[in-house]
């Protein structure tokens, strides 16, 4: 009876399968892959459990977007160009256990963005541009066990930012730009077993923050510029595996790991260590890896060597000096061989000292709210005309949005030396006066979105040398405020989207030598000078969509060896000549060329591009053919939606290539008339082309063999192939 009921409900749902989706009613799965959907379909069958929407274009996930599918357990929204999650976007999905939002453009997580997901176990946010997480953003995720925040733009983790994640076991924060961690950042993670902090910008071991993780057994800190591990720097009672490889370590204190008694494996590969002292405090250590260090096997290394033997610790590594011992494994050395004749005295590495932080008083301006637990102050939408003062001295996040300040005067934020994040969005600000940020020596984030700024003085950012994220979107700039970035050596991310900038001139970005992400979408840029981007040699992302460029700015792309993402969407570029991406061919991974009205791509336009390309967006253009892309072997996303291909024999190589791709590619014939609207894969016009039978027959036979095998299996299991899927034409 239950099976009959499910079948009946499945039949009803099948009739509602939205185009261009594929519905598997038996398993309650719906796939709408790599299409041109701009809103969440409202006709998805109510009983759907797994919904795959990868490769669409949603931009915003509105409140209540999935109320019609309350039985969802798995939701995949990868590569959907999502920029914002509205509060309550996932409300009603109380059964959801897996949510994948990887490879989108989400910049900020608000407190109610993930409301209603109380059964969620895995949340994947890898590859977005999340710059800041507000405490409480994960407060509703009581069942979450894995949180993946890799490859975002995080610099700072405030106290209690992960509050509510009582059963979280693995927190992945690799490949961000973290260099500031609140002392209570990990205080609310009692079940955490693994923490990944590798590939960040930590300059010292964040011992105070890590001490809150009593149950963690594995810690990844590799690829951080840490130079020294001090006495008792790490107090993690359950830690067994510690990775400090590929850092900048020059010295480790003898008692560095004395308060981590369970430590068994220590990875110190590829550092700058000439030696180590006996690690007497690490009584349970079984293995130390020192491969890739410039070990000086002199008499100064004997105490460490003797300790290895006494403690029965296995050591991996080889001598770099003296010449007589170069290449010798540590475990093959004998004490008499380790001499000190005519050797330089080792350079001493000073131990960094940390200044104790003042607790700060508990005063708070009238009409505002100050949270001593989170070190936050908020005067949002209080109809203020002047910036209030007298916030507690330990305030780290100050929210002044939606007031009417008009101007930010010099010294507007006295006594806030610990302030990390300052929100001044939608405040009617027309002037940021020189010295306005004076004294904000810890400031990392500055949000000035939705104001009326049209210029910035060179001294506007004086006194805020740590500023890494600057958001100037939706202002009134007609040109980039040249000279304003000279005082910002740590600037990583610059937002100047939706202004009225007409040109990017040489010298505009002078001083921004550490810039990684530059967002210039939605301006009126017609020209980028050849040397305009020269100061930004570390640039990884360049977003130029929605401007007035009529050609690819090839000359401006030289000297950007790290550029991995280039967005040129919605520019009126009609033609692309040979080699237009050669300057960044060795690094480029994501290329956006959609919605441009592109009419012709030269056969050599993609010269130099190849296996590194992971995603290529060409949808909604007007060309009838594209260059040979046989070398694009690493593609994960290819969007050719709404490109009017001319399906004649010249397109045969593309047709063959699409057939071989392990991707779902939507490519449709626009001409000749008799095949208009047909998929390129299905067009019969290719069968009359010379050489048609050389590869296709093998492919066809292979497909027939696969189909026959599947049919045979289904017959043996008593299932009809037709009963499983209700397919709508993509």
From TrEMBL:
It is found in: Secreted, Extracellular space, Extracellular matrix. GO terms for cellular component: plasma membrane. It comes from the Eukaryota. Signal peptide: none annotated. SMART domains: LRR_BAC, LRR_TYP, LRRCT, LRRNT. Residues 293-341, 644-690 form the LRRCT domain. Residues 328-340 have a biased composition (Basic and acidic residues). Gene3D superfamilies: Ribonuclease Inhibitor. Residues 16-50, 363-397 form the LRRNT domain. Keywords: Disulfide bond, Extracellular matrix, Glycoprotein, Leucine-rich repeat, Repeat, Secreted, Signal. Residues 324-363, 689-730 are annotated as: Disordered. Belongs to the small leucine-rich proteoglycan (SLRP) family. SLRP class IV subfamily. Associates with collagen and binds to collagen fibrils. Potential negative modulator of chondrocyte differentiation. Inhibits collagen fibrillogenesis in vitro. May influence chondrocyte's differentiation by acting on its cellular collagenous microenvironment. This is Chondroadherin-like protein. It comes from Serilophus lunatus. The gene is Chadl.
